[in-house]
Design a protein that fits this description.
This protein is an alpha+beta fold. The chain contains 21 helices and 22 strands. A seven-stranded mixed β-sheet has the order 3-2-1-4-7-6-5. A five-stranded antiparallel β-sheet has the order 10-20-21-11-22. Strands 13-18-14-17 form a four-stranded antiparallel β-sheet. α3 packs across α4. The chain is globular, with a radius of gyration of 28 Å.
């Protein structure tokens, strides 16, 4: 009988009633809970809880009963307020259909009368994609029921009801329409740029709540089309001089309008990415971000053809990125760097003092609020810590830490020339995977130590001679193995050449020498004793964004190797707009790591002088070096494991791409999989997850031999990994 009771209880739990999505969010925010905290308690992803709060999906057992229990307890603590006339949060976004005006957004159901739960939880929703019909005029697209947001203060939980951003467009009658996420369309009544900023902050209900409890909410983003630029007195394109300066001149009429309205611009001025703000009052930020695609705000290397999209389509692309990564605040590199701080803020609120007041204090695990000078070996050329060096001095490996990605190639062997194909495999989000779990220095400066004992758990830079490590005999999985070391790149240099004496290395590189079975004796080190896994949250956020978007494109996790290769075939063509988002996520990872060592730019700078990037706590070349070191070592470890098991060696490696000679054109002709879908432990595995590999491209061995002959010279071997994807050689390979 008890089994029947259990079955009944389970049936009831599977239909546990839930309040509407807007109320779920209100209750969570009323108790100051973050999405991450709720997700951790329910053992789901942060994005899953966000989808529940937006009505995209419904929780399934066993999480549904626990989620209902949480919301019920919160509802007892924070009863729904009486109706105040404030707008309620939408539960469904309007869809744009061809030949018809979009529907108005339906208001949320009353918080006091929860709707009956569906019989079965709906499948996850895919972001709405507007039809590519001919564009009607904005006036005909604006639904009567969806006017500009009211000016009164919104109720808790609907402050950012309209999402992170709007793409603004104007028609021939100078009427401005804002396109948001999910097909949302708003009238924009502002007649000038100052009025637009004011309207955005007081009425538009745009923005995103903080990604960390100690962080700040993300400012609203306005994206201006060429027509919108002209409507607000801005040029549709920058002149040559303005483009070189990266901004409009100080005396421009629109800048004067902003000054008269007491709005300020940051140091980068009114350019492709501009921030317009007033000093915070009462702890409340007053800031709006502008993005102007026609001023080249959306770099084609990261955003593809996004700048040419229609307003609703561009809103979908940028909105998906904003929801999954964060609202863009500049290039993908700048956004990647800002995401680190958003997920690991430098300060937090202290415990109340004797007067009950809280103060800002350092948050453990962060990089703090002040920049930290690098060790001399970690500093880039021209850094102030190197000001005493003679002019034009060139630092060698014994003076400079040089942790960079691979650019290595060799000639084909006779046996490889007898094969038919060259197959390239590429590591997914290689720098992201390397960032995951990386122990790096935090907010304290490095300490110099002479003749140190090496400690693999201590982040830093080590001066050590690794020239004695012989790749002909190394430990693989703690077992000594004999390899052909001449067919492998050295793991210790980006060029793959064997080191010739003492050189500076990051901790992961030295630790790998020990892993290969060799003793090491550092001569000197700069170490950081305050350390932590600062980038873990950053990696997880970008990993989820990448994997979720790839799933939307039909490439899911846990596919068999054959299924994965089939799913990857033409995956971007299934939804070109989401294909843009995937590329933007990749560039956010790569660019964010690169920004940790941003070099001096612009005229007037002289070696020995500080440049603006040095004022950031996130100017950390040591963290960049640790991540790149881990990425290169991860690549080498996989190549060694494959060579030890199969006798196959790479012919070229470029960053995260390796090329192998094979009898067939598929990665399955390189990577040995058994009937159960298992391959060589510790080597490359096909799949969508970061750190796994995909097919980069295949060319014939004859093609490769011709390229090597065509680009040969001065003892240089062309890197076939640079051309394996398309087979085209657009310029002579300089090795850079």
């Amino acid at each position: 009988m008890s089994e029947l009771f259990d079955a009944v209880d389970a049936l009831v739990a599977s239909r546990s009633p839930l309040p509407p999505p807007a109320e779920r969010r209100r209750l969570r925010q009323a108790h100051a809970l973050t999405l991450d905290e709720v997700a951790a308690a329910l053992d789901v992803r942060r994005a899953t809880v966000g989808d529940w709060e937006m009505g995209k999906t419904e929780p399934r057992p066993p999480q549904r009963e626990a989620y209902a229990r949480l919301l019920k307890q919160l509802a007892e603590l924070y009863p729904a307020p009486e109706s105040t006339g404030a707008p309620q949060e939408e539960t469904a976004a309007p869809q744009k259909t061809a030949g018809a005006a979009p529907e108005a957004v339906a208001p949320a159901a009353s918080a006091t009368t929860p709707p009956a739960a569906p019989a079965t939880a709906p499948p996850p929703a895919t972001p709405a994609r507007p039809a590519r019909a001919a564009r009607p005029s904005p006036s005909s697209r604006r639904p009567d029921a969806k006017k500009a947001a009211p000016a009164h203060t919104p109720a808790p939980g609907s402050r950012y009801a309209h999402g992170p951003l709007l793409v603004l467009d104007a028609d021939a009658e100078r009427k401005v329409t804002g396109y948001g996420i999910g097909g949302l369309i708003l009238d924009v009544p502002a007649k000038s740029l100052p009025a637009l900023v004011e309207w955005t902050l007081t009425e538009a209900q745009l923005g995103v709540e903080r990604l960390h409890g100690s962080g700040k909410d993300t400012d609203p983003l306005l994206v201006l089309t060429e027509a919108a630029c002209e409507r607000y007195g801005l040029p549709a394109a920058l002149s040559h001089e303005e483009r070189l300066a990266g901004r409009l001149p100080e005396g421009h009429k629109v800048i004067r309008q902003l000054e008269r309205a007491e709005w300020k611009l940051t140091r980068r001025g009114l350019g492709p990415w501009a921030r317009i703000y007033r000093p915070a009052q009462g702890g409340r930020r007053q800031c709006v971000q502008l993005c102007i695609p026609s001023w080249r705000a959306l770099d084609g290397r990261a955003w593809g053809h996004a700048a040419q999209l229609e307003p609703a389509e561009l809103a979908r692309v940028l909105g998906a990125y904003a929801q999954r990564v964060m609202t863009p605040v500049g290039s993908t590199a700048v956004t990647g760097l800002q995401l680190m701080t958003a997920l690991s803020p430098p300060t937090r609120a202290s415990e109340p003092d004797a007067d009950g007041r809280r103060h800002s204090e350092h948050r453990p695990g962060s990089l703090g609020t002040e920049p930290v000078d690098p060790a001399p070996c970690e500093a880039t050329d021209g850094h102030p810590v190197l000001a005493d060096l003679p002019r034009f001095h060139v630092r060698g490996p014994g003076e400079r830490l040089f942790e960079e990605a691979y650019d290595w190639a060799r000639d084909l062997t006779d046996a490889e020339c007898m094969k038919r194909y060259l197959v390239g495999i590429d590591v997914n989000l290689a720098f992201g995977a390397a960032a995951n779990g990386a122990v790096v220095g935090l907010a304290t400066p490095p300490v110099r130590v002479t003749n140190p004992a090496f400690d693999a758990a201590l982040p830093g830079s080590w001066l050590v001679d690794l020239s004695h490590v012989d790749l002909n005999r190394v430990k693989v999985g703690k077992q000594w193995r004999d390899l052909d070391g001449d067919l492998l790149p050295s793991p210790f240099t980006p060029s793959g050449r064997r080191p010739e004496g003492p050189a500076w290395y990051a901790t992961p590189t030295v630790a790998y020498a020990v892993e290969l079975g060799y003793d090491i004796a550092p001569l000197e080190a700069w170490v950081r004793r305050e350390s932590g896994r600062f980038l873990d949250g950053w990696y997880k956020r970008l990993r989820d964004a990448y994997v979720t978007t790839m799933k939307d494109l039909g490439v899911a996790e846990k596919l068999s190797p054959a299924e994965f290769l089939e799913a990857m075939d033409g995956y971007k063509s299934r939804d070109p707009e989401l294909g843009i988002v995937v590329d933007a996520v990749k560039m956010t990872v790569k660019g964010g790591i690169g920004k940790l060592q941003e070099k001096a730019r612009g005229g007037g700078w002289k070696p020995g002088q500080a440049w603006p990037a040095l004022a950031r706590p996130t100017w950390r070349p040591d963290i960049r070096a640790a991540v790149i070191s881990r990425a290169r070592i991860n690549m080498h470890r996989k190549m060694v494991a494959l060579a030890a098991a199969t006798g196959q060696y790479p012919v070229a490696v470029l960053s995260d791409c390796a090329v192998y000679a094979a009898d067939g054109p598929s990665p399955l002709d390189v990577l040995p999989y058994d009937a159960d879908g298992k391959t060589v432990p510790g080597s490359f595995r096909l799949g969508v997850s970061p750190g796994m590999v995909k097919h980069e491209g295949t060319q014939s061995v004859l093609w490769g031999a011709n390229i090597l002959e065509q680009l040969a010279g001065d003892g240089h071997v062309a890197n076939l990994a640079r051309y394996i994807k398309t087979g085209e050689v657009t310029a002579k390979d300089t090795g850079e």
